[in-house]
Amino acid sequence: MKATSRVLLICFAALSLTLVAFGAGAAExxxxxxxxLMFGLTGPASPIGPVQLKxxxxxxxxxxxxxxxxxxxxxxxxxxxxxxxxxKGDVAVRRFKELRNEDKVVGLVGSxxxxxxxALNNQARNQPLPYISACVAPMDMFEKGKLAxxxxxxxxxxxxxxxxxxxxxxxxxxxxxxxxxxxxxxFGRDQFQGAKAAFxxxxxxxxxxxxxxxxxxxxxxxxKIAEAKPDICMMxxxxxxxxxxxxxxxxxxxxxxxxxxxxxxxxVFGSGVPAEALEGVYSLMSWYWNLEGLDDxxxxxxxxAFVGEYMKVYGDPPDPYxxxxxxxxxxxxxxxxxxxxxxxxxxxxxxxxxxxxPSMKGPGTWRIDHQPAFKYGAFVxxxxxxxxxxxxxxxxxxxxxYTGDDxxxxxxxxxx
Length: 416
Description:
The chain has 13 helices and 17 strands. The protein is an alpha/beta fold. The protein has two domains: 31-155 and 304-374, Response regulator (Rossmann fold, 3-Layer(aba) Sandwich), CATH 3.40.50.2300; 159-285 and 377-414, Response regulator (Rossmann fold, 3-Layer(aba) Sandwich), CATH 3.40.50. Strands 9-8-10-11-12-16-17 form a seven-stranded mixed β-sheet, with helices on both faces. The protein has a five-stranded parallel β-sheet with strand order 4-1-5-6-7, sandwiched between helices. Strands 13-14-15 form a three-stranded antiparallel β-sheet, with no helix packed on it. Helix 3 runs parallel beside helix 4, helix 5 (158-173) packs parallel to helix 6 and helix 12 packs across helix 13 (344-353). The longest helix has 26 residues, at 3-28. It starts with a helix and ends in a 14-residue tail after the last strand.
């Protein structure tokens, strides 16, 4: 073999190894890494989608401010490609394909409604792409055989919301008669499945009703609750429905007849109703910007550092859904750096090879079903009235936290 041919062969072999290591996407766009950000910016999810986008964009801005993603010995900037799924499953699927096939993103952080996260997981099974679901996803999405190897649910399932809320009602509030009002889709029904498991465990009676997702007038449902005279009513609504049901429950004087537990509170929902409507309402929150009262000074300090940085950018304190989208975006980028590759399965394997990561909820660790167990699964809060508040965003007081291992669905129920 001639010396020139031998040199060319060596160079070709080296190039092949580079392509294998960093994936086709890196070879095509070595000067930037594109990440898709897709949320419900319009439609029923629109109260929450924009704050998720803010959290994800802040993560990317921080990575770029530090020089970018270290890949192949170079620092490569991250570029966000933003899409609106319009809170419609068919739109989300179409835009997933656009992001993957036309925009050439190397991963996706997104979803504001549970059903859309399931639809995108199905796409990721057929067209592999690292996908971090930034909303509470349906339980069956995580079942063995249904979960795409490259899908990760940073916010877990609605089962956890229902279970932990019900366990608190049964063991801390010690109430025995509960009315559960759900939205008529997986987010509400999965919450009830979790709540029913806890109530059965603790011997609590629960009545169930559900309303269509786009319900504008909850009067008939609220009247039925008042007539049933439960000790407490759990409300599982989301998006525009969450604000509507809280407002109408206040206007119709439901608190005169029962205590109210709003299952999954956010800054957006709490600030979207009068202070009087939130006063005395118990809720569960994924996280809250002011954890004052929690017996964990380190977590409070770390949380306030994140809050301070977020407020420098946006002015207002972060919604919990902004926080979780931030963490999800950071996890995708951590996976890329750890894998030293843009290949989907390599990124997924790298995330699971070192499954523990930091968050404002304390350390999180990915389980085999790609749901994270956090030090604090959720925080129990109680709404503040007008006299108690100190500023626009002083919405609730933290009164407890959920750290139990049973916060997440048992792995055996998912086929693991």
